Amino acid sequence: MRTLILSSSLSVESKSYLLCRKTYKILTEKVDCKLFDARSISLRAFHNETTEGMKKLKQEIKNSDNIIIGMGVHCYSINDSLKIILDNCFEEAEGKFFGILCAAGGEKSYLATQHLSQICMNEWRMIQLPRIVYATTKDFKKDKINSIETENRIKLFAEEFYRIGGKLLN
Ligand SMILES: Cc1cc2nc3c(=O)[nH]c(=O)nc-3n(C[C@H](O)[C@H](O)[C@H](O)COP(=O)(O)O)c2cc1C
Fold first, then answer.
1. pLDDT score at 166
2. Distances in Å between the alpha carbon of 140 and those of 4, 12, 18, 145?
3. Rounded Cα distance, 143 and 125, in Å
4. Which residues are near ligand 1 (CB < 6 Å)?
5. At what angle do helices 112-124 and 80-89 cross, to 10 degrees?
6. pLDDT tens for residues 30-47?
7. What atom in ligand 1 is closest to the CA of residue 72?
8. What is the position in ligand 1's atom list of the atom closest to the CA of 77?
9. Closest C-alpha residue for ligand 1 atom 28
10. Which of 5, 92, 123, 124 yields a CA-CA distance of 20 to 30 A from 142?
11. CA–CA distance from 81 to each of 33, 54, 147, 159 (Å)?
12. Is 27 helix (H, G, I), strand (E, B) or coil?
């Protein structure tokens, strides 16, 4: 099983990246797992020329069996970099299984992940793992996850993603 973990935040202090990194550490023991950090490429909005990095990401999405998307909440929704990625790089994600790891400032924005679910399900008929990791500022300390509950939720998320993702391939 080839799993792509896509960390979509461009923040230098990205907390959703920390969720992606932790999930990667667990899944890489079991599957062919890649962690793609959107900060490593140049993103250009639709109606501009696609960059080499965006082409590389498109290829990684094509090569993957399933995808885990790390997102940060902006204005109760997905942020700008993720929207650019979805608009430009996701055409080969058709029908793929996916999961969401989300970092937010506070607890009231949990429905923001639904916007990502809607796009993935309506646009590419993707199938979502019915479990989300949603963490807030209080779950982190500097550049580390600082919450046993969040760590346990990531473990559960990774186990379920592995189990269900594997079944969908058979
Ligand atoms: C422009 C902007 C808008 C934000 N809007 C929200 C919001 O609506 N709800 C919320 O809980 N946090 C909000 N936040 C806080 C971010 O979700 C938080 O910083 C999170 O860590 C972002 O993910 P990242 O660190 O991976 O980029 C916002 C932050 C920024 C910069």
1. 96
2. 24, 15, 9, 4
3. 35
4. 9, 11, 14-17, 72-76, 103-106, 109
5. 10
6. 999 999 999 999 999 999
7. 23
8. 8
9. 74
10. 5
11. 22, 12, 27, 28
12. helix
Structure tokens at 13: 């202090």
97-107: per-residue pLDDT in tens?
A: 999 999 999 99
Nearest ligand 1 atom to alpha carbon 108: 11
Q: What is the pTM of this model?
A: 0.98
Q: Is the pLDDT of residue 112 over 80?
A: yes
Sole residue written with tokens 């932790």: 22
170: pLDDT strictly greater than 80:
no
Indicate the fold that domain 2-169 takes in CATH.
Answer: Rossmann fold (3.40.50)
SS (H, E, C) 35-55: EEEHHHCCCCCCCCCCCHHHH
